[in-house]
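Form 12-C: Joint structure prediction
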Amino acid sequence: MKKVIKKHPLAIRWFHWINFPVLAIMIWSGLLIYWASDVYRLGWGDKTVLKFFPTSFYKALHIPFRLAEGMSIHFVFMWFFALNGFVYVLYLIFSGEWRLIVPNRKSLKESFLVVLHDLHIRKSVPPQKKYNAAQRIAYTGVIIMGVGSVLTGLSIYKPIQFQTLCNILGGYEWARAEHFILTILFTLFFVVHIVQVILAGWNNFRGMVTGLDVLTDNKEMIAAPIGVSSAAFRSQPIVENKEPFERQKKSEENHEDVEILNEEKPLPPAITAVNYSEKSDVISNDEIIPVPPKENTESQDK
Amino acid sequence: MNYKEEIIISEKKLRKRTLISFSIFIVLLVAALLAWNRLHQQPKIAGTPGTLRKGLNFNGTFFSNFLSDDHLAKTYPLSAAVPHVRVNGDAGMENDFDTATWKLQVVRNPGDTLFLTMDDIKSLPKTDIIFDFKCIEGWSQVTHWAGAKFSDFMTKYNLNAQTQMNYVGLLTPNKKYYVGIDMRSIMHPQTLLCYEMNGKPLPMNQGYPLRLIIPVKYGIKHLKRIGTIYFSNEKPPDYWYERGYDYFSGL
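Section 2 - Result
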């Protein structure tokens, strides 16, 4: 028997997997457009550290002289990007899921601890719900970036019809630069995201497809949260009451097809003990789960 | 929120669910890739795969709803205008042009053409505009132009019936460059039949003697060296449209 958590609602998985190819297409077609007037660089004065983009980069990807193609793709797929993002944000708001993503007061401080952990400098991480502090900041940031891309995009697409917006963003040239910077940030996010997903492993990736987060086995109540520091999360020992599993075993022996228990009948307290409720920041429920002796995380650090 | 929900599930059931989910996932992935490929192999309409062209046309219709004579391109002080104006594109600007015999041909109706001289155009009130000229390539430049408002020209020559039509077409004298512009955009108060740049007559490479300046469009629509103006309910042929660009190309 496996214990699983319904981690990602179906809607979120759809939004995610629609967004992935659409954003990739937007970045690709944006590159085809950008080539026609590739003015940005990193540097100062006459010194250029990095030109966006080197000729070899364009050549390797066959980017030159495809402006019309890029525009036709960009201005059709922009609708899918904007609509998918818009419905996603609405979903977050009305489902309450936003509470799991939006950073709270502790997130900034905690995110440093998460990063230190991911760099193998720290052993433990602060307790978390669905996402850790670094994820909250990253995922909320990427939503804001999406909004930014739509707004900066709209102001360079129709700068006269949406002139107020364009002015707020600093005018046409600035809006174009902002649109470009956001794209660079998206690609950086993408790289980090992919690395974290690889590090987090199969269960985490499967979770984004099936929606289920498999709690590895009886000993560990908590499975990997997506992306950042999943390993750390597992390393936090949480003792649990064995009772529900025994009950289950029993039913297995009786050849009962035990399935989704909590949808049919209320679970005994021990099973609902893994509680990611919004009110409590700690995952355990003191009354039911014997909490391990509180570690002093600070002193544990080397 | 489902996140609190915890499920006990048999290993078999988990495997089955994983298999089903991933099957759907992979089928959708393959379908998306096939669709992406097919999109590129579609028959082209004016240099762009059919579906994308329809999308661009939809955008044109959609965003033309935002057009308004009150939505003006931002204007700048004279000091902001650059002295050296970029020259981009020379289609229709070949050396087969005789300035001495030039006359603006205005086809009021098929077979009914009005011939105008520069003096006729200059007799209309002159308007200066300093605005950020935007090229479809992505660059822009604050430039200074002057000429007659297109809307004044239409009024002066009693072309009110023609303003009820959907499009205006413009051609260079050798007909090698041509654009089509929706009526609302060309009647915009900032659209000029332009004959001056930086306070002097247009240079040859900027369309002497007369060019279009239409701030609500990308540079591709600012036809240089106007030979003929005509009116149509159908989309007039458009040079860059035929090469895969958006017909509307409005800003």
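Section 3 - Comments
Residues 218-302 of chain A have pLDDT under 50 and may be disordered. Residues 67-95 of chain A form the longest helix (29 residues).
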